[in-house]
Amino acid sequence: MNKARRFWADLMHDYDWYRIRRLVPEEDTNNKIRSGRGLSVAFHIEQDLVDAMLLFTSSNNITMFSLSLACYYAFLYKLIKDDDLCVTGVVANRSKEEMKNMIGMFVNLVPYRIKIEPNNSFNQFVQKVQQLCTDVLEHASLPYQQIIEIQGKREHHELPSSSFQYESLVSTLTQNTSTELVVSEDCVLDALNDRDTTHGNGTTLFDLTLIVSHDYYARTTKCFLDCSTDIFKSQANVALLANRFKYILRQLFCSSIVGEPIYNQCSISISNLSLILPEEIEEIQNVIFHRLPTIENEAPASYAQARIWLDERIRFDPDKPQVAIYNMPFQYRLFPEQTLSIKRLVHALQLVVL
Questions:
Q1: Helix axes of 2-11 and 122-138: crossing angle, nearest 10 degrees
Q2: What is the CATH number of the domain that holds 75?
Q3: If you average pLDDT over residues 184-212, what whole number do you get?
Q4: Do the strands 38-44 and 84-91 form a parallel or antiparallel pair, or are they unpaired?
């Protein structure tokens, strides 16, 4: 236990616990109580992305847990622009052989803290996350309450803003069949399903939770994104967030987006990733600014316009070669005894802009 205490003390040293509950950095939620209400969206990862991720894990001796967590870190970094991230995860906490077949709850909550160097390649970052996961698993026996106490935080309810969970499913050929045993008219026993059915029940403990459910037999991956209504106000916002996460994956593992060969596609740095969807980029590029019908075609020239016209005359007058005055600041000065009232401010803006 002393070794575990030293590990957690080093890992969480100098961490700003006052921002651990702020998904949005500029939002002051230190003393805010979460409502517990949430919105959820479920989505499948495209098969070509799943195949590329599995190829990456096998080629680099990386677990799908570490790779998925690294992708989540990259997504959070682009979302909140914070390079010191702490994500909560759960571990089975059955490290001893004699505990594996015991009935009972041994699950422990552990913080995964990592500092992101955005200019490094994603490949290097995944290796760093893999080492973090190995170290956390080795020292996961220390209860979360004691991890908090090491940092001098006596409030045991202190939880990070975001959470990550990975579900490894091993399906069978008969996974889609339904087996029921009718005991009586009012009692029906159903077969045990290895899938968690609690997703999307309208509640969430964290501001943002990503659950990755990977089926090794079917080679499919399904994700669940649970978002607190304290921050994400509508289902459309949650669905848009899921699309942005999928686009992050496509930039990392699809060579047609990154423009790199498949063996070198994860050399892209996290700073070069983008949350802006392709359709949003196209919409921005197609924006055309039109003159509003309420604006008159003729109006008195402003001071700024007069200066620009004068500059045009100076630049193209061969008899008066002078330096152009583009990009020079227009100043509106006040006398020492004067104050800038709203009326004077409007007048100054009219001189420069209108």
A1: 150
A2: 3.30.559.30
A3: 67
A4: unpaired
